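Predict structure. Chain length: 151.
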Amino acid sequence: MSQALETVARLARQAENGLPLGRGSVGMDDAGDVTVTLPTDVSHHHFFLDGLLFNVSITPSGDETVFHIWAEVGYMPYSIESPHKRARLQTVLRATAGLQQARFVVDEKQKIIVLGKRHVPGHLTLTDLMYEIIQFVQEARPYLRVFGECL
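Prediction complete.
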């Protein structure tokens, strides 16, 4: 019984530091003890919101975790296709210049992408992950709705 209590105490101490996210983080060794290992691989997650697929990647890097989030918003029309639509989208893009969490960019194929990147100290807990996602979405969502109306 004392071994079981010791295992539970070890897991509780680990939980205080934030359980790491990642496949295979919690396991059992040959002796039957529960082990918790910090992931070194990138963890990928996805979710849908307002018809957009958001991608999240979490990369442990030493004493911090790098959090990336991005989504494809749509395509910027060429001037010859729709000059008015292009002008409206460019106006919205300029309006996003001062955002702190989210950045809207147009790639070489005229795809509009919203992305964010943060360096979070330590290992990301589920609470930290949700906080980062919500911060990003709260800032980007009003602009995403305007983009949706323009596209």
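Summary: Helices lie at 2-17, 83-95, 126-150.
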